[in-house]
Write a structure and sequence with these properties.
Bound molecules: acetamide
Oligomer: single chain
Number of domains: 2
CATH architecture of the largest domain: Alpha-Beta Barrel
Radius of gyration: 25 Å
Structural class: alpha/beta
CATH topology of the largest domain: TIM Barrel
């Protein structure tokens, strides 16, 4: 990390402290004003404002409130029981007691009831209804995921200190009276993390997953392989992690800044298969699907460093090492039968580990100079009757598409997989703007919108001179919030092909879990609303009011979010 970088972090910490002391003064002022006001309790007679993020489809606030005490029972049976236990686990640390679970209850008072009803109309598999009265709380859903999201809303209806991890004294756990009907706009509400560039410890990944679930985000793409590192244990090819998971040192400062300086320290790490099983299960307990990404044919330097025969020029690539700086390396997999077999072996282990319907094979930024320079590869192009290198990449992708389809999975790739012809079952992730997504959706392919312009969370979120070093760009909160994943250029009958939206946290300049949170929040909260809330209900000013309250939750959890200008 550069000096400039760490200094800026220190500044942020200081400004947060300053903000806290401002807050204390502000609170003192409020208390004094209340004490001397003639009608100090008039505000309390109005229902409290529920600051739920993402904003629910429909919310009606009611008079009164329900109070959770140690004698409140949670009532759930069969499949609902697992979700009820998650509710009990979530409330226990800060409340300091564990609510009792019962399969049924004679009393209708002082209970939180979770109920599954597959016949509930119009809310889909992730929707729920939540009703809070003075007597009880009722959450209903068609599927367990809906109950889980109802629970997330309930947590947000409680005071922010519910998110603390040890008993909080002196709080009454009041839930305001409310009637909510809620369901998501899109089925893919995702984020991407990039442990290939800077390894993300498993513990940080689990914490990241926790925070996602609070925002009703349900898809996490993990970019497991790149030029700078290979981060997943593959039993058949141990050198991928023996060699590919370590690099000698890492560039300090921005790639564009010369002369280059390096930190002189080894950087590495990978997830064992047991780690992966744990991450996948932890995520699925929170109704989050992990989408693994194994990059091909480009971004392949760490793999080729481990097994040089996978490269186009194995003799020359014998001494190749995982890259120590950013950019896109020219090292690309050779489209030989041995490489295809190798990658399908890797994918075999990947699909054993990840139950995800979607398997991402990258496909972006495949620099084709080595294919162009190789007599052998040019002969492959001629033999297969292909026109050029783009068609060769398309052929390469089709080998993977056929393989994945045979195993009941769907291939996802960045929008470059459109060039040279799209494989039949492929899903396109549109990153170079929206055009890839528009073309693919209009051609009847499913797409996920992830354009740099609105979803690249590795971009600056404020003036560069005041922010930690980033890759470039400028993506403020407001712009994320205003994104609409369904561009007008997609024909109305094709809009159903837009599965949803994803925010990218590329890791070149994000070297610590703390920085990852800083880049993710609050932008991921805005993205959550883009992915979940109805388009008609989006209102930035209203979001900002709710966000102010929501920040209290992030603080209680200890998320290192980026403070707003007014908070600094
Ligand atoms: C990408 O940002 N290369 C997908």
């Amino acid at each position: 990390m550069s000096t400039r970088h760490s200094n800026l972090f220190r500044q942020t910490a200081v400004s947060q402290m300053v903000a806290h002391s401002h807050l204390t003064i502000a609170l003192a002022v409020v208390i004094v004003v209340c004490l001397f006001s003639r009608t100090p309790f008039s505000a309390a007679s109005k229902p409290e404002r529920a600051s739920i993020i993402p904003r629910p489809v429909s919310i009606r606030q009611r008079q009164g409130h329900f109070t959770i005490t140690s004698s409140t029972q949670v009532v759930a049976k069969k499949e609902a029981t697992a979700e009820a236990l998650k509710l009990i686990d979530a409330l226990a640390p800060s409340m300091g007691f564990r609510l009792q679970l019962a399969a049924r209850s004679k009393a209708q008072d002082n209970i939180i009831k979770l109920e599954l009803d597959p016949q509930l109309p119009q809310i889909g598999d992730e929707g729920y209804t939540l009703k809070v009265t003075r007597e009880n709380i009722l959450i209903r859903a068609r599927r367990p995921a809906g109950l889980f999201y109802g629970i997330q809303t309930l947590r947000q209806l409680l005071p922010p200190s519910i998110f603390r991890k040890a008993k909080v004294e002196g709080v009454t756990w009041k839930v305001p009276g409310v009637e909510i009907t809620d369901y998501p706009r899109f089925k893919w509400r995702g984020l991407l993390v990039d442990p290939a560039r800077h390894f993300i410890p498993k513990s940080a990944l689990l914490r990241f997953i926790d925070t996602m679930s609070l925002h009703k985000l349900n898809s996490l793409q993990i970019h497991l392989t790149d030029d700078q590192g290979w981060r997943i244990e593959i039993k058949k090819y141990p050198k991928l992690t023996d060699i590919g998971a370590r690099r000698d040192e890492t560039l300090i400062g921005h790639l564009s800044k010369r002369p280059w300086l390096f930190d002189g320290r080894r950087h590495g790490g990978f997830y064992t298969q047991d780690d992966i099983r744990e991450i996948v299960r932890y995520a699925s307990d929170r109704h989050i699907n992990i989408v693994p990404e194994i990059e091909m044919p480009g971004h392949a330097r760490a793999a080729i460093s481990s097994y040089p025969h996978l490269g186009v020029f194995p003799e020359k690539q014998r001494s190749l090492k995982p890259w120590t700086h950013w950019g896109v390396s020219g090292d690309i997999f050779a489209p030989r039968p041995t490489t295809i077999a190798f990658l399908q072996d890797v994918l075999s282990e990947v699909i054993q580990l990840f139950p995800s319907n979607y398997i991402h094979i990258g496909g972006d930024e495949a620099v084709k100079n080595q294919w162009k320079a190789s007599e052998e590869i040019q002969a492959v192009i001629r033999e297969k009757g292909l026109k050029n290198e783009e068609e060769l990449q398309s052929w390469f992708t089709r080998q993977m598409d056929t393989f994945l389809s045979k195993h009941g999975r769907r291939l996802v790739g960045w929008d470059e997989i459109l060039q040279g012809g799209l494989a039949p079952g492929a899903i396109v992730m549109s990153w170079r703007g929206e055009q890839g997504g528009i073309t693919a959706a209009n051609a009847g392919h499913d797409v996920v919108m992830a354009p740099t312009s609105h979803t690249y969370f590795d971009y600056y979120q404020g003036p560069a001179e005041k922010e930690p070093l980033a890759i470039g760009g400028y993506l403020p909160l407001r712009k994320v919030y205003h994104y609409d994943p369904v561009p007008a250029a997609i024909a109305p009958e094709k809009t159903r092909h837009v599965l949803g939206v994803q925010g990218q946290l590329w890791g070149e300049y994000i070297s610590t879990p703390r920085h990852l949170e800083y880049m993710a929040y609050p932008r991921a909260a805005a993205l959550a609303e883009v992915g979940w809330s109805p388009k008609r209900s989006k209102e930035y000013e209203d979001f900002l009011i709710r966000l102010r309250h929501h920040i209290g939750r992030l603080r209680a959890i200890g998320i290192c979010y980026r403070p707003a200008e007014s908070e600094k």
